[in-house]
């Protein structure tokens, strides 16, 4: 069920297993922040993080994604990471605009469309530049994303510019709080090379892992048809060196030659 605080002000566009895609009408009198702030006196669980920079948008309706959980799990880690971006001097990171006590829901403005393979040279340049600047900022903040892949890159196109934003921080963590072993749960084709080489399930993630997957994203942009040949779901870190796992390992060997 949609949170009752949001229901009167939003229209539901799409419902997924773990999210609502909502639409809110832009108004000079009642905007998103006003709508939520008005509830704070009566509902203490509402948390307004920061106002959306929507006053430059010409669209009457603006999209808003509400991410939710169903079981005993929570979004506490992702919310914690997103909160560190408050007033971040980097345009390649998303904004947490709403959450609720209990860490079961978080809201983010939908700013664009997912990056697709085979983008034009101009847009690909912007994507690569955005990834470099975004990852540099994250790593300087001691944060490893752990799931850099095309589907987690969003393009916001305006009349004069194109900006790329890195999303989905469910697997991200702060590496300055001490090393610990984690289980990889990201995109299959972007398995950390150290896991594929050692066949381990748990590993200590490093900033370099984001850079390795960054290389694969760039190659995916340049040579989409080659990556489409992979049966990505067959790439696994286990004792069975199947054909797809061997192919991605060979890819890394070829990359290192150049």
How are the SSEs placed, and which strands pair?
Layout: E1 11-15, E2 19-25, H1 32-37, E3 46-48, E4 61-68, H2 76-83, E5 96-100, E6 105-109, E7 113-114, H3 121-140, E8 143-144, E9 153-157, E10 162-166, E11 173-174, E12 181-183, H4 193-198, E13 202-204, H5 207-222, H6 224-228, H7 243-257
Antiparallel strand pairs: 1-2, 2-4, 3-5, 4-6, 5-6, 7-9, 8-11, 9-10, 12-13
Helix pairs in contact: 3-5
Describe the structure in brief.
This protein is of the alpha+beta class and 258 residues long. Helices cover 29% and strands 21% of the residues.
Can you walk through the features of this model?
The structure is a single chain. The protein is built from seven helices and 13 strands. About 12% of the residues have low confidence. It has two domains: 99 residues, Phosphorylase Kinase, domain 1; 145 residues, Transferase(Phosphotransferase), domain 1, CATH 1.10.510.10. 29% of the residues lie in helices and 21% in strands. With 258 residues, the chain is α+β, with helices and mostly antiparallel strands.
The name of the CATH architecture of the largest domain is: Orthogonal Bundle
Gross geometry? globular
Overall pLDDT level: 78
Strand order, main sheet: write it out: 1-2-4-6-5-3
Number of strands: 13
Please indicate the count of domains: 2
**CATH fold assignment of the largest domain:** Transferase(Phosphotransferase), domain 1
Q: Which structural class do you get from the secondary structure elements?
A: alpha+beta
């Amino acid at each position: 069920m949609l949170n009752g605080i949001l229901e009167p002000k939003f229209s539901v566009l799409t419902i997924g297993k773990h999210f609502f895609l909502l639409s809110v009408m832009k108004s000079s009198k009642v905007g998103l922040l006003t709508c939520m702030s008005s509830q704070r006196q009566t509902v203490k669980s509402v948390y307004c993080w920061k106002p959306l920079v929507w006053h430059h948008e010409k669209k009457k309706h603006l999209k808003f994604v509400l991410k939710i959980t169903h079981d005993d799990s929570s979004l506490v880690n992702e919310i914690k990471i997103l909160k560190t971006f408050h007033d971040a001097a980097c345009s390649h990171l998303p904004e947490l605009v709403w959450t609720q006590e209990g860490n079961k829901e978080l809201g983010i403005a939908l700013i664009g469309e997912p990056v697709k393979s085979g983008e034009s040279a101009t847009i690909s340049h912007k994507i690569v530049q955005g990834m470099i600047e975004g990852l540099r900022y994250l790593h300087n903040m001691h944060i490893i994303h752990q799931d850099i892949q095309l589907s987690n890159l969003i393009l916001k196109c305006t009349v004069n510019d194109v900006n790329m934003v890195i999303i989905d921080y469910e697997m991200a963590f702060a590496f300055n709080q001490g090393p610990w072993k984690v289980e990889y749960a990201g995109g299959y084709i972007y398995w950390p090379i150290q896991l594929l080489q050692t066949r381990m399930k748990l590993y200590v993630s490093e900033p370099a892992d984001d850079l390795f997957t960054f290389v694969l994203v760039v190659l995916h942009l340049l040579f989409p048809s080659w990556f489409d040949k992979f049966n990505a779901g067959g790439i696994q870190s286990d004792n069975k060196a199947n054909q797809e796992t061997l192919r991605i390992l060979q890819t890394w060997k070829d990359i290192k030659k150049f």
